[in-house]
Specification:
The protein is of the alpha+beta class. The chain is 26% helix and 28% strand. Strand 4 and strand 5 form a beta hairpin.
Length: 181
C-alpha cells in the first residue's frame, strides 16, 4: 500500500510529493513569486549589461519548484506550462490531475518541496541537461472533488532526476523521474 501511495504521488501529484496531512483545515497559500521592484530608468554603465543574466539550471529548477507549488495550491496551470515542455509526461499528468481536482470543487493543501540539493549529472554539453534533485516533501492532503473524502500523503525525502531542455535563453522541464529510495 505504501508503494502504491508513493507511485501515485510521484507520477500523478508530484507537487503533492508524498505529503501527509496537517490538521489545519485552512488552505496553504503559496508564496507569490518575487517580482522585481521597478527602479528609475537609467542607462547602463559601461560595466553593466542591458541584457539580463542567464538563469543557471539550478536557479531554474528552484524557480520551477516555486511555480509548481503555486500551481498545486491554486489549480492555475498557465505559469507551470510556461516552464515545462508540452511533451513532459509527468508534467502533463500533474497539471491535468490538479486542474481536475479544482474544477470538481476539490483542492490540494501542501507546502510543496524544500530542495536540499541539486547536482549536475550531465550539464547538457551532449544530450539533455540532467540533474539529481533531492527534496523533502511536505505533508499533503487533497480532495479529488467537493464530495470526495480527504486523502493524505505523509511526505518525506525524495530524489528526482530532472531533464531540462534549452529554449532561447532559458530552460524548460522536459521530464523528471522519481528515483527508487
Amino acid at each position: 500500500m505504501v508503494r502504491i501511495g508513493r507511485l501515485i504521488v510521484a507520477l500523478v501529484v508530484t507537487a503533492l510529493a508524498l505529503a501527509g496531512c496537517s490538521g489545519d483545515p485552512q488552505p496553504i497559500i503559496a508564496k507569490p513569486l518575487a517580482t522585481p521592484t521597478p527602479t528609475p530608468s537609467a542607462s547602463p554603465s559601461p560595466t553593466e549589461s542591458a541584457t539580463p543574466k542567464a538563469e543557471s539550471p539550478e536557479e531554474f529548477i528552484r524557480r520551477w519548484n516555486e511555480i509548481q507549488t503555486d500551481m498545486v495550491a491554486t489549480g492555475a496551470t498557465d505559469a507551470y506550462w510556461s516552464v515545462s515542455t508540452k511533451r513532459c509526461p509527468p508534467c502533463k499528468r500533474i497539471a491535468s490531475t490538479v486542474s481536475s481536482y479544482y474544477e470538481a470543487g476539490g483542492y490540494v493543501k501542501t507546502e510543496g518541496w524544500a530542495i536540499n540539493s541539486i547536482a549536475a549529472v550531465n550539464p547538457g554539453a551532449e544530450g539533455p541537461a540532467t540533474f539529481q534533485v533531492r527534496v523533502d516533501s511536505a505533508p499533503t492532503r487533497y480532495k479529488k472533488s467537493s464530495s470526495s473524502p480527504v486523502e493524505r500523503f505523509t511526505g518525506g525525502p525524495l530524489e528526482y532526476t530532472f531533464e531540462l531542455a534549452r529554449r532561447n535563453n532559458s530552460w524548460l522541464v522536459d521530464n523528471y523521474l522519481v528515483n527508487a529510495q
